[in-house]
Amino acid sequence: MKFFVDTADVAEIKQLAASGLLDGVTTNPSLVAKSGRPMREVIAEICALVRGPVSAEVAATDYDGMLTEAHVLREIARNVTIKVPLTPDGLRACRRLADDGTMVNVTLCFSPAQALLAAKAGATFVSPFVGRLDDIGEHGMGLIADIMTIFRQYPYLKTEVLVASVRSPMHVVEAAKLGAHVATLPPAVLRQLFNHPLTDKGLAAFLADWKKAGLSIA
Ligand code: E4P
């Protein structure tokens, strides 16, 4: 499973990229706005830090506007992935960009039917939002299960399922059990993946024994 980080905070990305565990980055208009910085500058910096796909979302909602913005964004770096919303215009833009060889992430997917449309439009990634479905009392991970089942019936569909709106390590584990290709995690959730109290306890015990024995390696 690939791990993307869901943030436009360049300092965070720099730190996480150093771990060697980061396969890509996703941003959205809210995250870029939160950074308080010009979008082109932020995306360029992120693309210089991470080799994998970096999703940059269009703000236009009409086909022509999306394509105009997409052309500006994809000039920033080779690993820019254009993110478009799952609307009729978004999917039309997706098809056009995909035909031109541009990576596209279709976002705001909340149903299996929508995911199928994104795949048919040639999306590189489709982003189902699990947390936001959980928030309204629906079963976010059920959507991932349905999409994976459908995509498996049609091996010629090359679209990767990018699990988004992830809120906890359990979301990551459940998505991995279903075979989802990618999870995009808020930095805090990515850090939580490392944690287990028995790891801390075990390490403390090893180090205490080592110190007591007065041993050294180097
Ligand atoms: C995905 O690409 C989105 O940016 C993101 O995962 C949305 O997450 P949220 O529901 O926590 O805002």
Describe the structure.
- The chain is an alpha/beta fold.
- The protein has one domain: Aldolase class I (TIM Barrel).
- Helices cover 51% and strands 17% of the residues.
- The chain contains eleven helices and eight strands.
- Strands 1-2-3-4-5-6-7-8 form an eight-stranded parallel β-barrel, surrounded by six helices.
- The longest helix has 17 residues, at 197-213.
- The protein is globular and about 70 Å long.
- The two termini are 36 Å apart.
- The mean pLDDT is 98.
- Bound molecules: erythose-4-phosphate.
- Erythose-4-phosphate is lined by residues 6, 26, 28, 107, 127, 129, 131-132, 164-165, 184.
General form: globular
Whole-number tally of structural domains? 1
| Helix-strand makeup class | alpha/beta
* Cα end-to-end separation: 36 Å
Provide the helix percentage: 40-55%
**What portion of the residues fall into strands of 2 or more residues?**
15-25%
Low-confidence stretches: none
What is the CATH architecture assignment?
A: Alpha-Beta Barrel
Assembly state of the chains shown: single chain
H-E order = EHEHHEHEHEHEHHEHEHH
Compute the average pLDDT: 98
Radius of gyration: 19 Å
The major beta sheet can be summarized as: 8 strands, parallel, barrel
CATH topology: TIM Barrel
Number of strands: 8
* CATH class division: Alpha Beta
Strand order of the largest sheet: 1-2-3-4-5-6-7-8
Q: Which molecules other than protein and nucleic acid are bound?
A: erythose-4-phosphate
CATH superfamily: Aldolase class I
